[in-house]
Amino acid sequence: MATVTLEKLVKRYGALEVVHGIDLEVANREFIALVGPSGCGKSTTLRMIAGLEPISGGNLKIGGRIVNDLPPRARNLAMVFQSYALYPHMTVRENMGFSLKIAGMKPEEISPRVEEAASTLDLTALLDRRPSQLSGGQRQRVAMGRAIVRDPEVFLFDEPLSNLDAKLRTQMRTEIKKLHAKVQSTVIYVTHDQVEAMTLADRIVIMRDGYIEQVGSPEEVFQRPNSKFVAGFIGSPPMNLKDAEIADGRIVFANGESLPLPKQFADRVSAGRKVTFGLRPDDLYPTGHGIHSGHETDVHTQDLRVSITEPLGNETLVFSEFGGHEWVGRMLNPRPLKMGEMLGFCFDLSQAHLFDRDSGKTLRG
Ligand SMILES: Nc1ncnc2c1ncn2[C@@H]1O[C@H](COP(=O)(O)OP(=O)(O)O)[C@@H](O)[C@H]1O
Ligand SMILES: [Mg+2]
User: Fold this and answer.
1) Distance from residue 48's CA to the centre of ligand 2 (Å)
2) Domain ABC transporter: where (predicted)?
3) Average pLDDT, whole number, for the chain?
């Protein structure tokens, strides 16, 4: 059973604390993504789990056992880095088998393991090549193969796809997902890319400045962000987040324009409250062109002038001004739009979010 448990885990570099006592329970065979902006402590946390960084405080348990002081080798985990760190003078076969050789395994035991991993990763035809004769995606697969042959209970990935171009990244994402289904290990996967986190993980851990902001399934963190930070970090294009003030059942923006207070917040805020109003592009759309078109329960309609459009084929992103802010909406089944044209928009207020402006915390119940 490879559960991974972080209990008040702290990392200090000298006097500087960069991970502030975080708690996390990773279930056996769960795929967890640690996501957050650069510098928030993702790699440091992963490296403490791997045993590559000493732990400054708290406990790390693997399979229920405290492993704070165990060396990496004794933790039964394998790590895949962003830089593939392959040995250039070795073939794919030798690269993949190297850690087993170091561990003292006999060649006749190593061979079948390497061949099985190669077949899983579609590398069989490449076993006798050197890294310089491989594409970026193939090198990344070899780096994964090197981890798989060790049959670890826990896989740790640190931004493994960051060096690949967009198309290859999408392909490799699918392969990593298939791989997880096949090997059924516990995975902790670090990325700054929320799309990667959303598409891969069972649960997402959103980190910020050395703290965990929220943990939840992709659906939970998307639909019920606990803070303005999570709301703005998850989802693409990002949620419209606009500062406003509550007055008399309305949300009033800086230029005096306003929206009705969404019904779900009617009893939760009173006049004078400074808030940030949040609405996803999916919930702001030209009338008749939204996901919930015709089924809205709390909708505000408003004519707006189209400032910019970004046609994406199946949908068009539509930018316009309201309340002294720029908003982005999503038009499904798009028709061609002209810049500057007036268009009726729906604000689906049943899907709106409200955050306290100062604390950034949700005002949802
Ligand atoms: N060896 C180090 N010495 C001092 N500070 C470090 C060291 N490694 C990382 N940090 C700091 O720790 C914080 C978290 O870094 P890191 O875990 O690499 O972030 P992330 O992987 O989320 O981008 C950053 O502020 C970084 O500057
Ligand atoms: Mg990092």
Assistant:
1) 13
2) 4-234
3) 95
pLDDT tens digits, residue range 153-170? 999 999 999 888 888 889
Compute CA distances 169 → 159, 279, 299, whole Å: 11, 29, 38
**Using CA positions, which residue lies closest to atom 24 of ligand 1?**
39
Query: Using one digit for the tens of pLDDT, what is the confidence trace for 306-340?
Result: 999 999 999 999 999 999 999 999 999 999 999 99
Ligand nearest to the CA of 45: 1
Q: Is the CB of 14 under 6 A from ligand 1?
A: no
Total-model pTM: 0.93
Of ligand 1's atoms, which has the minimum distance to the CA of residue 47?
17
Give the CATH number of the domain where residue 282 resides. 2.40.50.140
Whole-number Å distance, alpha carbon 163 to ligand 2 midpoint, is 13
In a domain, 69, yes or no: yes
Domain tally for the chain?
2
Q: What is the pLDDT of residue 1?
A: 66
Rounded average pLDDT over 293-310: 95
Q: Do β-strands 186-191 and 154-158 pair in parallel, antiparallel, or remain unpaired?
A: parallel
Domain termination residue (choose one: 226, 241, 261) = 226
Tell me whether residue 253 is in a domain.
yes
Instruction: Average the pLDDT over 24-38 and give the result.
Output: 97
**Distance of alpha carbon 182 from alpha carbon 80, whole angstroms:** 17
Cβ(10)–Cβ(180) below 8 Å: no
CA 356 – CA 227 distance, rounded (Å): 9
Task: Provide the sign of the torsion angle of the four alpha carbons 280, 200, 361, 27, taken in this order.
Answer: positive
Q: Is 10 in the pocket of ligand 1 (CB under 6 A)?
A: no
Question: Using CA positions, which residue lies closest to atom 20 of ligand 1?
Answer: 39
Residues with CB under 5 A from ligand 2 (ion): 43
In a domain, residue 364? The reply is no
What is the CA(179)–ligand 2 centre distance, in A? 23
Distance set, CA 105 to CA 73, 76, 109, 218 (Å): 14, 16, 7, 41
For 166-185, the pLDDT digits (tens) are 888 898 898 899 889 888 89
With a 6 Å cutoff on the Cβ, whether 52 touches ligand 1 is no
